[in-house]
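Checked the freezer inventory, then went back to the computational side. Two predictions to log before the end of the day. The first one is the construct we discussed on Monday; recording sequence and C-alpha cells without edits.
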Amino acid sequence: VGSDRKFFFMEMNTRLQVEHPITEMTTGQDLVEWQLRVAAGESLPLQQEDIMQNGHAIEVRLCAENPTNNFLPETGKLYRFAIPRNSPRVRVDTGFTEGDEVGVFYDSMIAKLITFGDNRALAIGQLEQALGETAVIGITTNIPFLEKIAFHPAFAIGDTTTAFVENHLTDLLH
C-alpha cells in the first residue's frame, strides 16, 4: 500500500425516510412500491426528469409526549384514538388503533399526519382541519402543540427554520 492512497467514507441510507409521504403526495408516486419493485429486480418505472411535483404537503408527527414537561414521552392505553380518514388531501400513517398500549420500548410517535394542498395556505388549512379531527384520550400527546404551530402566523407565511420551535416556544406552550 503506497502512501498516495486515500480512503473516503460515504454514508448511504437505503431506506425510505420518515418524510417520504411528502414526496408521494406531491408527485403522486408510491415510493414504497418502487422500493419493492427494485428489490425484486425490476427497473424504476420513471426517470428523474419524468417526475413532476405539484402542490404543497406538510407532515407532522403525532407523538405520545408532553410538550409542557420538556417533551418527555408518555405511556399508557389509547382509550380513544380518532384520526381523519385518508383522502387525496389527508393521509394518516399509523400502526396504532384504539385500545392499543403505547409502551416504553419504541419511539413515542403514534402517527404521521400528512396534508396536501395546491399551495402552502391550502395545505395548512387541511392540517388545521385534520388536527381538529384528531383525538387521543388516555395519554398526553402533542396535538395541542401541533395545532398552535399550524395556526402560528410565522408558520403561515413560511417563516420557518430548524429553530422555529425554539424561537416560538413560549407562544407554542401557552
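The second is the one RB wanted added to the comparison set:
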Amino acid sequence: FVEETLDEVAVARDTFLLPIGDFSFTSDSERAHAVAAMLLPFVRELITGPTPMHLVTKPTAGSGGTLLCDVISLVTTGQSAPVGTEIPNDDEGRKRLTALFLAGEPIVLLDNIKEIVQGSVLAAALTSEWWMDRFLGQSSIVRVPVRCLWLATGNNPSALHEMVRRIVRIRIDTGLERPADRPREAFRFPDLKGWVREHRGELVHAA
C-alpha cells in the first residue's frame, strides 16, 4: 500500500465506526464482531458456504440490542431490519425459513430470544449453503440458497452445545439498571437511525 491508501483506510475505519460509537460493548472483541456483522453483507458473495448468527446479548431490556441491529441493517440495505421471532423447531419453523429464503431477505433478525437458542431447524439453516423444502400445499420441492445475514437479540440468552459454534456473540452492557431512561443528550447522535440514513453513502463508501 502507498501511504495515501493507508490514510484512506484509516479514514474509512473511523467513519465506519461512527454509527456504533455510542453502544456499550463489553470489550474490543465484541465491537469487532459488530463491525464484522456490518461488513458481512458487502462481502457475502465472496464467501462460499454458511455464515454464523451474530447474537446481540445484554443484561436488560433497553440496552440497545435491537437498535444496533437496525443500524447494521440501515448501513447495509438502507432499511431497518425486519423483525422476526424465534424459529419454532417444527414444520412451522421450516415453512417460515423457506418463505424468507424465497423472498431473498438479505437480513434475518430474530428479536428478543427468551431463553435458549436451540433447535434442529435453525441449526440446519445456519449450516446450510442451500435450503430444500416442500412448497406449501404442494408436493414439489424448492431449493434456494441461504445467503442472508443472521442477527438475533436477547437478554442473557443461553445456547445449547449444538448452537455455540454457530454463533458470534456481541455483548452490550451499559451498567445501568434502566438503560432505556438515558437522556437523548447522552448520545453523540440522538437520532442515530436518522443520522445513518443521511450519511449512508459515506458509510457504504467506507465499507
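For RB: Residues 28-43 form the longest helix (16 residues). DSSP finds eight helices and nine strands in the chain. Let me know if you want it refolded.
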